[in-house]
Amino acid sequence: MNLSVNIAGVTWKNPVTVASGTFGSGAEYSEFVDLSKLGAVTTKGVANIPWEGNPTPRVAETYGGMMNAIGLQNPGIDVFVQRDIPYLKEQGATIVVNVCGKSQEDYVEVVERLGDEPVDMLEINVSCPNVKEGGIAFGQNPNALYEITKAVKAKAKQPIIMKLSPNVTSIAEMARAAEAGGADAVSLINTLTGMKIDVERQAFVLANKTGGLSGPAIKPVAVRMVYETAHAVKIPIIGMGGIRTAADALEFIMAGATAVSVGTANFHNPRTTIEVIAGIEDYMRRHHIEDVRDLIGIV
Amino acid sequence: MGITKITAQIISQHAIADGIYDMRLAVGEMAQGAKPGQFISVYSNDGSKLLPRPISICGIDKEHGELRIVYRVAGEGTKEFSTYAAGDTLDVMGPLGNGYTLKDKKAILIGGGIGIPPMLELAKQLDCEKSMVLGYRDQDFLKEEFEAYGDVYVSSDFGTVGIKGTVLDAIREYGVSGDIIYACGPMPMLRAVKAYAAEHGIEAQISLEERMACGVGACLGCVCKSKNVDAHTHVKNKRICKDGPVFDAEEVEIS
After folding, report:
1. How confident is the model at residue B142 (pLDDT cuts 50, 70, 90)?
2. What is the pLDDT of residue A127?
3. Contact B50 A265 (CB under 8 A)
4. Could you name the CATH architecture of A5-295?
5. Identified catalytic residue from A85, A128, A136, A178
6. Residue B90 pLDDT
7. ipTM of the prediction
8. Is the pLDDT of residue B1 over 70?
9. Where does residue A24 rank: exposed (0-12), middle (13-18), buried (19+ CB within 10 A)?
10. CATH topology assigned to domain B107-251
11. Is residue A137 classed exposed, middle or buried when 0-12, 13-18 and 19+ CB atoms within 10 A define those classes?
12. Best to test chain B binding among A23, A25, A28 (most B CBs inside 10 Å)
């Protein structure tokens, strides 16, 4: 039985990674998960310099999900390269580094710094709804997305995954822009911009007022967008949005994703990734499927 | 002994004041590593509520592998927990956070509202001269249990129990003194405690709270502003769930 997948020339031992920002750099969850057992570890976004992030409260629970407005707090590339990459390498993980920035120069600087590091892939976060400058500004306009993809691709030594925002009119158009810019893969969806109001306090729940909605509540939207993207581009897709079971993961794969990411569910059950992998294996046994790749886009 | 997530059986639960519940959980090995000031993440059995509720540890029974939590019903999650009885189960992760650093100095333990429960296990374990100052809204709870460990001074918002006023009012009113403060309670109380400790030149360990998601330091949801750079991001944002919840009062800014 084969669970391995190939994404832009990189072999993952199975199709399951974690969504950036829900797993730190793996260390916080190492008591629960053998990081080498995952298809890949996708790290929390890293910028060229440390970012403090947003004021608190940064998180709120919603029905079947949660909202966050962390604001991409991160230690910057220097600490990341010294501490987090060697750690992940030592654990035997396949490493996808999520890169964030406020300007095209920021992204390119981080990508260049990672060029000689033992990193397998880069995921470019152009879809964070919680930072005012940069981030989402590149992710909601196809021309801007095309330009930044091209600029990053020109300097990147590893394959690049453009992480797409669902907060757009046409996900297919955005995916095509990324592909045209030279993206090796796309990942979707990032969170949906939402808002929650505490009626007793008559105030916003999050200090940032708005936040990114994630969790099972958004899964049908995410599956639909993966399906549309699979029909719009030829590059591989990493699907995510509300996955907490193997059946959820298989929905994304059947919609056209080559791999999937577990995000919010890590907060509910730190062993979700491992259970999803086991569940996919079990599904394949039950359905006499030899190769997980035979399920990609099967519907 | 690290952090584990288990399905724990409820040994007992009862209300001890309006909206305040006292629950004992069979957690086995998890109790062995637990310290006063640490907390556990308690997960809902309802699949629509994904995030755990961080609840401080009120009592540790290593011999029987039990943890006791005393919590206030503050929303849908804690409301659900309050409906359970002996024999029901809840998923819990723990022990989480750093806990208090116990010192052999004349101590003042200050608890405000739902910040009172974690002081009970601390009172039990602190083997030194100590005074306990408890601030309630209106009804008292756990007061008699504290009295087994030393002198207890009480304040309440409307004077229904103890003196009318804050815990700081009680400290001044009764002339409570000590060389170290351990505190847990609402932010305005902690701000006043921090100022009091600074004014008297004494050490204060304060326990903070914030909305959390992961509970293990990964999501960066529950940070507070700190004086020194933090270990994770190397900015001045300490993670309450991982670097705390107990901090040296001088180390953190209380907003």
Report:
1. very high
2. 81
3. yes
4. Alpha-Beta Barrel (3.20)
5. A128
6. 98
7. 0.93
8. no
9. buried
10. Rossmann fold (3.40.50)
11. middle
12. A28
